[in-house]
Amino acid sequence: MTTPTLRTDVSSLSPEGAGLARGGPSPRPMPGLFISFEGIDGAGKSTHIAALAEAFRGQGRAVTLSREPGGTVLAEKLRVLILNDPMDALTEALLIFAARRDHLTTVISPALARGDVVLCDRFTDATFAYQGSGRGFDLDVLSQLEQWAQDAQGLGQGLVRELGAKSGPLPIVQPDLTVWFDLPAEEAAKRLAGARVPDKFESQPVEFFRRVARGYADRMASDPGRFARIDSSPPRDVVWASVSQVFAEKGWLP
Ligand code: TYD
Q: Is-above-0.70 flag for pTM?
């Protein structure tokens, strides 16, 4: 059975429905947008995320820029452990989802409820790609953790009722759009070589990143409407043109 997903619905619900305290009658906020960015290390997400933030601000939108693992004081502490300390695969997955839950409850949901554009450098697809495909951790366990950590009900009591989900798996929060910067693993390794001291994941062999890339392809195949795959092989300005086109086609940017 397919799990219903909650995308910008957090912000489009009434404050009561979303379980968010707000004073007095106020104009309905613009719907929030939740956009995640994915790709193997070296695929070159960062400059495009920064440029998109500028473009949205230029349109008068409030932007929340964040990243995973991280994005909150607690989650950034977990990030240091996750990226540097050896640990068994389940421990790693639990810490990643713990960080994600804190990020969702304290940063992402409130931002969407305000009508912000949330640009998040990595989200759950990274866990399926890195921990699942890369490390070979059980995808069913990851799906269960995804259900728990991204459970929309826990983000607001009225949410399930408003979505009309009366039976089956609870709705979960997912990005409205996931931009996947796709680059062959060999090319990414060349770009990363000597760039900085690699962390636990960056120091993995090329074969690991081939598996990670396949993991992203699998996630896209399971939810194609949510993904935009960007070929990251060409020069940066060409990649930016592809990114801009995706946002223009959505009607989110000119
Ligand atoms: P990254 O997002 O590339 O940040 P930076 O640009 O500072 O290196 O690095 C985060 C690393 O964490 C990256 O190697 C992928 C890894 N990661 C996972 O293994 N699982 C996850 O769920 C997430 C969000 C990240």
A: yes
